[in-house]
Amino acid sequence: MTTAAAKSLENRNIRTGLMAFAGAVAMLGLGYAAVPLYELFCRVTGFGGTTQRATEGEADLAARMGAAAGGQQISIRFDGTVAPGLGWDFRPEQRTDTVTIGQRDMAIYIARNNSDRPVTGTATFNVEPEQAGAYFNKIQCFCFTEQTLQPGQEVRMPVLYFVDPKALDDANMEGVEQITLSYTFHEAKK
Length: 190
Hints:
This protein is of the alpha+beta class and 190 residues long. It has helices at residues 3-45, 56-68, and strands at 52-53, 73-82, 88-92, 96-100, 105-113, 119-128, 136-141, 147-149, 154-163, 178-187. The longest helix is centred in the first third of the chain and has 43 residues, at 3-45.
């Protein structure tokens, strides 16, 4: 093999090694970015029943759009559970409510710490049917922050929400008569 051919082979090997290393670094970076990117994807699309967060201004706009759409109504079912070992009771104050699409409404959940120690919990949530997640908007929710309850303490926790009138134009929402909002409280990681 001539020196020029050996040098060319060596350069190609170095270039291949650098490309492989760059690919490995990129895969590692994507691995770390996967969870936040997936959470962002779910929040934006409502995938998997992930609810949306809305501002007061967006709620005002939805109310005007809902009124213009004829004031259609939908049933909302509320569900509350706790993870094993949490030591809380957690339930909705009211199991179902009928709301006007686009109008703000409030649900109240009641939590009680039955343990003999302060417990900090965090709520996970979803909406069923899954396609409704893109249209179920929460303006204010206890699920946005950790909740600490003292032994024996009982609290009422509000959720201010609305169903986006855009749901009326989605063929996937056709025939949906009830949306279920579910929360599960877990002990917060220390």
